[in-house]
Amino acid sequence: MDSFTKNKIPDVYVVADNITSPLGKTTYQNFAALKAGETTVKLHNNQSLSFEPFFASLFNDNELFYPDKEAKYSRFERLLIASVDDAIKQGGIDPFDPKTVFILSTTKGNVGLLETEDEHPELYERVSLSASARLIAAHFGFVNEPIIISNACISGVVGIITGMRLLRAGEYETAVVAGADVISRFIVSGFQSFQALSNDVCKPFDINRNGLNLGEGAGTIILSSNQKYSSNVKVLAGSVSNDANHISAPSRTGAELAHAISKTLYDAGKSTSDIGFISAHGTATSYNDEMEAAAITIAGLQQVPLNSLKPNYGHTLGAAGLIESIVSIQSLKQGLILRTHHYEENGVTNEVNVCVTPTPTTTDTFLKTASGFGGCNAAVIFGK
Amino acid sequence: MIDTFENLNTNALPEDKFITGSCTISNGVVRKDGQTVLEKPGCTLSELLLSVYQSLDPGYPKFHKMDNLSKLGWLAAEILLQDTLVKERYKAEEVGLVLANANSSLDNDLKFHRSDIEVRSPSVFVYTLPNIVIGEICIRHGFKGEHCFFIQNEFDAAFIYRQVNYLMDQDILEACICGWVDVLGEEYKAALYLIEKKNNDKSIVFSAENLNNIFNNNRD
Question: What's the alpha-carbon Rg for chain A, to the nearest Å?
Fold first, then answer.
């Protein structure tokens, strides 16, 4: 692409965002808690979720998120509504605008309703993601058909990339990208069956890591191609790749995630030295972190400071890419790279530069990565 | 929606793209490029999937471990790509997938949910994600490009058309397998399309209307 045509494509700016998590109900609250070194991953003994105690970051049982007197919305939907509502208010955008699209990212959505509701054909319709998206769109008054992405643990990052592309193509001017997941017995028992859950707090990239912690949360990012936001952080580029190797184990080499990272760097017009830090997927499973470190090394980013927020939030599945991107945007704004909790000693073949103390920075550019079942990988670069 | 033709990447002035192949599986009928290649009226979905597999005889034992959604999509891709040069013509990163359905992985979610909580199986759990069918197709054919699984109330040909157009006009993909793969119990439908920038003797113009025509088996 030459520079002439490149100028024709509108830039995509971050207008506003929200994180609703056990750490806080706004981005500001979340970042303040993270700066103070807080994590919400702890041991839960909740028989409705698991017969065995397990480590996770969960909301309180009675957390409503949004008052719903008519009992119209599920817990998953109330969480999303709370997050989207705050982001819309922060951004002052008009959901009724026909140039606005709503994008919903989730890994398992309302699957927990299978456990709490009587099984009948209407329930199948009720648990569908289209039903959730329709309810939320109606709640806010979004006029366009919502776009729903369910692509395992890269769903949140893919939501951002999809929003960016729709705005670049000129299909819409504003994209409200929201992702959420809540934890049910379905999800806990599934990860337990994989022996993927750590029996302790998770330790990304550490020699003693032995699995992930699950987490609940929602994140919303509002994107716009309107020039009035031209001083805001931009979504510079993004890319998705597939390992074509195994449905539940990552690539043996990391070459495919590396390809997504390199393509994103190229499309963003950035070199490796422009990347101030990496917000890694860093789930703390043996295979993920090994593959991710290899990919980062292949992409030439081995020396770049890197953090994983999984020790703070747990793995929030379809929300993870959004929550971790939003935190990292705050890192740019506040000039502070957050640390990776519980990291002590390198535990991956290709050692990466894990950030262990909060580190002041003047960078204006970061890379977010994600990987998931089905061999999927995603990378996105935010910056000026 | 806003009409912003001036915002489109003019370097990629909407290039001609073609539906160079299709495969639909519904109501016990398998069609390739509009022609019926197999008919099994009155059998269950599992029986249909097995007999399509046996008719292809691909020697791929992993097939039998898949859930019905992955089996359906995998078979449709297998038939779609028969006698094509996709693997020879393109690099692994140049081929991607844009798939959608209404019921996500609910068919297999119910199976996992109904299984004994004490002995839940990771090999069932892994299929509780709709994008696993994309992973299975990528593993089989070595595709490593852009991909995404969307959930839609019903087949939205215009949306799929725009997504694929963008990926190909921006040269993110040179070939794309797109379409619909949905299973819930005995209700199922697959409609996969191969989209390329080069036409062949049986190709038709890539458009939402043509996607819909094939989806509804209206072609010719």
Answer: 19
| pLDDT of res. B218 | 67
pTM over 0.80: yes
- Cα separation, B113 vs A145, whole angstroms: 30
**Cα distance between the two ends of chain B:** 32
Q: Are residues A192 and A265 in the same domain?
A: no
Q: Domains (ranges, CATH) in chain B?
A: 16-215 (3.40.47.10)
Chain B, 36-95: which have a CB under 8 Å from a chain A CB? 92-93
A203 and chain B in contact, CB less than 8 A: no
Supply the pLDDT for residue B143: 98
Residue A176: pLDDT band (50, 70, 90) is very high
Same-domain check for residues A246 and A200: no
Q: How far apart are CA B17 and CA B10, in angstroms?
A: 16
Alpha-carbon span A16 to A93, nearest angstrom: 9
Q: Does residue A163 surpass a pLDDT of 60?
A: yes
Separation CA A77–CA A124 (nearest Å): 16
Beta bridge partners of A177: A103, A221
Question: pLDDT above 90 covers what percent of chain B?
Answer: 88
Least CA distance to B150: which residue of chain A? A149
Nearest CB to A1 within list B11, B138, B162: B11
Domain tally, chain A: 2
The answer to whether the Cβ–Cβ distance between B128 and A162 falls below 8 Å is no
What are the pLDDT digits (tens) for A179-204?
A: 999 999 999 999 999 999 999 999 99
In angstroms, rounded to a whole number, what is the distance separating the alpha carbons of residues A162 and A146?
A: 12
Banded model confidence at residue B3, pLDDT cuts 50, 70, 90: very low
All residues of chain B having their beta carbon less than 8 Å from the beta carbon of residue A136 are none
Q: How far apart are CA B211 and CA B220, in angstroms?
A: 13
Instruction: Express as a percent the part of chain A with pLDDT over 90.
Output: 95
> Which CATH number is A374's domain given?
3.40.47.10
Determine the distance in angstroms separating the CA of A96 from the nearest CA of chain B, rounded to an integer.
12
The complex's ipTM works out to: 0.96
Residue A165 vs residues A148, A160, A219, B7, B204: alpha-carbon distances, Å? 15, 9, 19, 12, 26
Say how many C-beta atoms besides its own lie within 10 A of residue B56's C-beta: 16
Same domain flag for A46 and A87: yes
Question: Which residues have a Cβ under 8 Å from the Cβ of A219 and sit 6 or more positions away?
Answer: A17, A18, A19, A20, A83, A156, A178, A179, A180, A316, A319, A321, A322, A323, A325, A326
User: Which of A169, A195, A228 is where one domain is finished?
Assistant: A228
- CA–CA separation, B17 vs B20, rounded Å? 9
State the best of A193, A225, A287 to mutate against chain B, taking most chain B CBs within 10 Å. A193
